[in-house]
Here is the input.
Amino acid sequence: MKTDRRLIQLFTLALVGVATGCGTGLGQAGLGETLKQVFQDNFLIGTALSLDQINETDASTDSLIKHQFNAVTAENIMKAEIIHPEWDRFDFDAADRFVHYGRRNDMHIVGHTLIWHSQLPPFVTRITSADSLRQFMQHHIGTVAGRYADAVDGWDVVNEALNEDGSLRQSIFYNLLGEQYLIDAFKLAEQAAPSAELYYNDYNNEQPAKREGCIALIKKLQEAGARIDGVGIQGHWHAGRVPFEEIEKSIEAYAALGLKVMITELDLEVLPRNFQGADVGRRMDAKDPELNPYVNGLPDTVLQQQASDYEKLFSLFLKHQDKISRVTFWGVNDGQSWLNYWPVSGRTNYPLLFDRNNLPKEAFYRVIGTKKRSD
Ligand code: XIL
Here is the structure.
């Protein structure tokens, strides 16, 4: 079965290669079926874009993105440290290009993210008064969400406000403004971008305690009259340890609050880690070679485990397609995934559906197969 597929793929590649006279990067163009086509009646299929990808620096990757995905999230360039580097200075250069990219290619555009404790510019981390921080929030959300009011389809308004036990994270926002900052953020975003969807986004919010905290947070917003349209479950999981049952319970629980559910940052890590989730503030010691075991390639057993987890995940997503509006991968191919440099720098990781040559992995075919079996 697998060999047959590889042969067909090679044959298709060869045909397209001959037809176009190009030798590389044609896997995506040569594939009969693409993610966005296969799931077009179910949910959007997104990816996060790095600056290089927004700038279309690599033709093969660019072609893959345009063939496979119909939604894009800015991986970094809309975060406050980049888009708002100083109190009275914004830098919209990369963000403007990101938005144009999405529009030109008829993609759903996600803004990521307005209020987050990480990747803040130094001037914000130095703020010590509630008034100044409130002023920053007004200025920041008003200007950024306002500029893209007609272009960005949905905003991750607040990112990662919760601790693992479901309580609110002691971020600068919480410490100076209390929980009111959540309500303010959503109200400011609605004012600035009335037609954009507004989301709360977090990792591990499929786990029971954090899910309860997330539900309480959403209810607080709703009771305060702030509009929230969706909740993002980031989905930074480990191959072999995907919490399928909790994911299903979470999809149901969030949908029951009247919200769209999105998987916003999907990747399935295959390397060792001593913690789960995606707290970017956590790192591990890089010296131990056992932390980087697959420098020369991924063993087939791990590749198959990952493929089978991706398959089970997409079967679950299809089962709940009435509740799920988008599934976004955090990156395009294994070579450029953030998991090559976090939480340990310089590792060789394999978390996505496409390999370092932009060729589909076993997981890609298994994901596509879930749709066939559901028809
Ligand atoms: C990550 C980016 O992928 C990295 O390039 C950057 O160095 C750190 O942030 N949760 C989020 C994302 O919401 O913004 C993070 O993105 C990954 C975890």
